[in-house]
Backbone:
C-alpha cells in the first residue's frame, strides 16, 4: 500500500500521527483531504518541536498559542501582497486535523481528555447550554464576478485551446468542483442527452449525481473530441495534455488551477479561481428561483446548510423586486459562453 505520508517525511518522527494518517487512508479518506490533514499535522508538529511542547500532553493553553501563531505569522499567497495571519477558514481546517489527532490519542488511552473540545449549543437549555469553540467561526459569502468581470474572463478564455474553453464551460454548466472536472472519463459524458455523470469515487461527498450541460458546451465538447482523437483514441480520462513533455497524459487538478490562474491574470480578475465557476453556477440557479433542495441535489451537497449561502447571496428575501430581472440570468450566462465556440 502506498504510504499515506510519503510526501512528508517529518511525520515519521511521531508514530501516532503516522498511524492515524495511515488509518484514514485505509478507511478511504479522499486524497486531497488526507493531504490537507497531513500538512496541518506537519505544521502543528513543527510548532511543538520549536516551542518544546510534548505532543501527547499538550494543553489547551499551548494550542491557543498555536492558534495565535497561525493568526499572526506572515503569509504569502500567490502574487498578493504579504499579509499577517491565515484566513479564518484555513485556521479552522488546521484545527480539525489537530482535534481528530487528539481524539485518536484519547481513544488509544493516551489521554483522558482532549485539549481541543468542540463548541456546542443545545436548544432550549437556556443559560449554560452552549460552549464556545476555541476559534470563532466566520461565515463569509463567496465572491462572484460582476457581469463586466465575467465578460472579461470570457474574452481571456478566447485565447485558450478548445480543451480549456470546454472545461471552463462544463465547470460552470454542471457546477463542478475542480477534482470532479479533472477526474471525468469519456464514458461519463452522454452527448445525446447532454448529461454528465459524476462518479461517487470522484466527488467530495462520495455521492454520485447526474447533471446537465448546455448546448453551447455540447458544441465545445464535439470540437474537443476532434482534438482529443489526435492525442489518443483510447477510452479513459477525458482531458489529456497536449504538451510535448506529458503528451496524452491526464491533466491534473494542479494543471487546471494554473490554467485558470493564467486566465484570471490575463482578464485582470485576480479573485477568479477554479471554484468561482461552481459558486457562480449555484448562485445563478438560486437567482433563477430554484428551490433549496434542488440546488443541493444539483451541487451534491450533503447538507442544506451548505447550500444556504448561495440562496442568501441571491437576495431571495427581495424576490418580489428581483423576480422580473433575475429569472433569465442563468440563460443569459449560458448565452454569453457561445462566443467561446
Residues:
Amino acid at each position: 500500500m502506498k504510504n499515506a505520508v510519503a510526501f512528508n517525511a517529518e511525520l515519521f518522527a511521531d508514530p501516532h500521527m503516522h498511524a492515524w494518517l495511515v488509518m484514514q487512508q485505509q478507511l478511504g479518506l479522499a486524497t486531497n483531504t488526507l493531504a490537507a490533514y497531513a500538512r496541518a499535522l506537519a505544521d502543528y508538529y513543527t510548532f511543538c518541536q520549536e516551542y518544546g511542547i510534548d505532543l501527547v500532553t499538550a494543553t489547551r493553553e499551548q494550542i491557543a498559542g498555536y492558534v495565535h501563531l497561525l493568526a499572526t505569522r506572515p503569509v504569502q499567497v500567490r502574487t498578493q501582497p504579504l499579509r499577517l495571519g491565515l484566513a479564518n477558514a484555513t485556521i479552522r481546517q488546521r484545527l480539525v486535523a489537530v482535534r481528530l489527532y487528539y481524539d485518536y490519542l484519547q481513544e488509544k488511552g493516551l489521554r483522558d481528555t482532549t485539549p481541543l473540545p468542540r463548541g456546542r449549543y443545545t436548544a432550549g437549555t437556556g443559560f449554560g447550554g452552549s460552549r464556545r469553540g476555541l476559534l470563532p467561526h466566520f461565515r463569509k459569502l463567496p465572491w462572484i464576478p460582476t457581469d463586466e468581470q465575467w465578460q472579461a474572463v470570457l474574452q481571456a478564455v478566447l485565447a485558450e485551446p478548445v480543451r480549456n474553453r470546454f472545461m471552463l464551460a462544463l465547470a460552470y454548466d454542471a457546477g463542478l468542483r475542480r477534482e470532479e472536472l479533472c477526474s471525468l472519463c469519456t464514458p461519463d459524458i452522454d452527448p445525446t442527452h447532454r448529461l454528465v455523470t459524476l462518479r461517487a469515487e470522484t466527488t467530495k461527498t462520495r455521492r454520485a449525481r447526474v447533471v446537465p450541460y448546455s448546448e453551447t458546451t455540447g458544441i465545445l465538447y464535439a470540437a474537443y473530441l476532434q482534438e482529443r482523437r489526435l492525442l489518443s483514441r483510447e477510452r479513459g480520462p477525458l482531458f489529456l495534455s497536449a504538451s510535448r513533455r506529458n503528451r496524452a497524459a491526464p491533466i491534473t487538478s494542479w494543471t487546471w488551477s494554473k490554467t485558470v490562474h493564467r486566465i484570471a491574470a490575463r482578464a485582470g480578475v485576480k479573485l477568479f479561481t477554479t471554484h468561482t465557476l461552481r459558486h457562480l453556477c449555484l448562485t445563478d440557479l438560486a437567482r433563477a428561483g430554484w428551490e433549496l433542495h434542488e440546488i443541493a441535489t444539483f451541487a451534491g451537497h450533503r447538507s442544506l446548510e451548505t447550500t444556504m449561502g448561495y440562496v442568501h447571496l441571491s437576495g431571495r428575501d427581495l424576490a418580489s423586486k428581483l423576480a422580473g430581472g433575475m429569472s433569465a440570468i442563468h440563460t443569459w450566462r449560458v448565452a454569453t459562453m457561445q462566443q467561446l465556440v
